[in-house]
Structure formats: structure tokens, C-alpha cells
Specification:
Helix content is about 0%, strand content about 50%. With about 120 residues, the protein is an all-beta fold. It has one domain: Sandwich (Immunoglobulin-like), CATH 2.60.40. It has a 4-stranded antiparallel β-sheet with strand order 6-5-8-9, with no helix packed on it. The protein has a 3-stranded antiparallel β-sheet with strand order 3-4-7, with no helix packed on it. Strands 1-2 form a two-stranded antiparallel sheet. Strand 3 and strand 4 form a beta hairpin.
Length: about 120
């Protein structure tokens, strides 16, 4: 159910969705999915950005604490709410940890963990 806030402006009313005043992070549901020789990262934009931002994806192949290296950047598109990035640049069947940084803000999400598999799926 969509909630709305009513704000009186001069002699009229302005109706805005409640998310326009949401506190906290603009990103929700950042997750990693283990795939065959790859990891899929998904996230949703909960609150639209008013400034120019870029999503920076960092990966650690050792520990959740890092060290992390950039594997990709994904541009923000005001028309999109859902994003997906497929990381195929992995080299071994081990745990990988990812962080999502919203460049242009102070938001950091993660780490999330995935362990891709290197044996082909059963048919």
C-alpha cells in the first residue's frame, strides 16, 4: 500500500509519496546470488537520487573485512529502480564478498557473500 503525506502550500495542497521524505538509505535489497562460474548482484533504488551518482561495485576474494578492489561501475538511470550486475571475472570456487558504494553520497552497502560453483549444473 502506498502512503502519502499531505503538505499545505499557500492556499492549496501538495500530495507527495511518503518515500520522498524517507530517512536513511536510498538502496534496498542488495544481495548476491551464486551461479555457475559467476555471481549475480541485485539491488533496488528505494528513493530516487536528486544528484548525479554512480554505483561502484567492490569485491574481496579473501575476507568480509577486505581488502576490496573495484570490479565495475554502473551508471544511475533515473528511469530504473532495479539493477543487476553479473560478475564473470572470478577465478576460483571460493567465497566472494561484495560491497556497493553509491558514489556522490555517503552510502555503502554490504558486504554480501556468494560462492559460485564451477561444476556444471546437472541436466
Amino acid at each position: 500500500m502506498m502512503r502519502y503525506l499531505l503538505i499545505g502550500i499557500m492556499a492549496g495542497l501538495l500530495i507527495l509519496p511518503a518515500w520522498a521524505f524517507a530517512d536513511g538509505d536510498s538502496i534496498s535489497a542488495f544481495k548476491a546470488e551464486s551461479l555457475y562460474r559467476a555471481v549475480a548482484l541485485d539491488w533496488k533504488v528505494r528513493t530516487p537520487f536528486t544528484q548525479e551518482v554512480v554505483f561502484q561495485i567492490l569485491r574481496s576474494d579473501s575476507f568480509p573485512e577486505g581488502p576490496y578492489e573495484e570490479v565495475a561501475t554502473v551508471p544511475y538511470d533515473k528511469r530504473k529502480r532495479k539493477y543487476k550486475y553479473l560478475d564473470k571475472s572470478i577465478g576460483a570456487e571460493s567465497n566472494y564478498y561484495y560491497k556497493l558504494i553509491v558514489k556522490g553520497t555517503d552510502e555503502t552497502h554490504g558486504p554480501v557473500q556468494a560462492r559460485p560453483f564451477f561444476s556444471p549444473p546437472a541436466t
